[in-house]
Amino acid sequence: MKQLLRLKVNGEDYEVYAEPWQTLLDVLREIALTGTKWGCDTGSCGACTVLIDGKAVQSCLVLATQAVDRDIVTIEGLSKNGPHPVQKAFMEYFAIQCGYCTPGMILAAKALLDENPDPTEEEVKVGLAGNLCRCTGYVKVVEAVLAAARALKGEGRDD
Ligand code: FES
Ligand code: FES
Fold first, then answer.
1. List of long-range contacts for 121-129, beta carbons under 8 Å, 24+ apart
2. Which of 51, 65, 121, 146 is the least buried, fewest Cβ under 10 Å from its Cβ?
3. Which CATH class is domain 85-152?
4. What is the mean pLDDT of the chain?
5. Ligand 1 mean position to 60 CA, how many Å?
6. pTM, to two decimals
7. Does the domain made of 3-77 have the CATH classification 2.60.40.10?
């Protein structure tokens, strides 16, 4: 039986009805936040990554009921005041092809840079290991995240 849930997403309050078995991913897509992608349902691809209380989390592995009273950020929330530096870097470094993995990849990168503002290339690879991409070969993605780290520190491009 559906329950009324109150969720805070991108700073907005939402009231949604959800079955106890529905995931946060299901509910986000039902409230038209379709930037969060569905790829597997098994926690394997990272396409559904969102931020919960600042941490990158696979929303297909979280029940909607577990997300009540948490601070949820989706890709739509990241660009409220214009593109985030990670988003800009993904565009500038051509780290996007089909784009299906991109929202999750960008949110995972944001969480990584929030925790470690000056990551090595290896740390970026490890930090994004849960986010699969079938198109880019990851090289441009890693370059973009390192560029975003520099931009967030106020440094310009060095290439
Ligand atoms: S849809 Fe959640 S990890 Fe693939
Ligand atoms: S850009 Fe296509 S899956 Fe990553």
1. 121/146, 128/46
2. 121
3. mainly alpha
4. 96
5. 5
6. 0.95
7. no
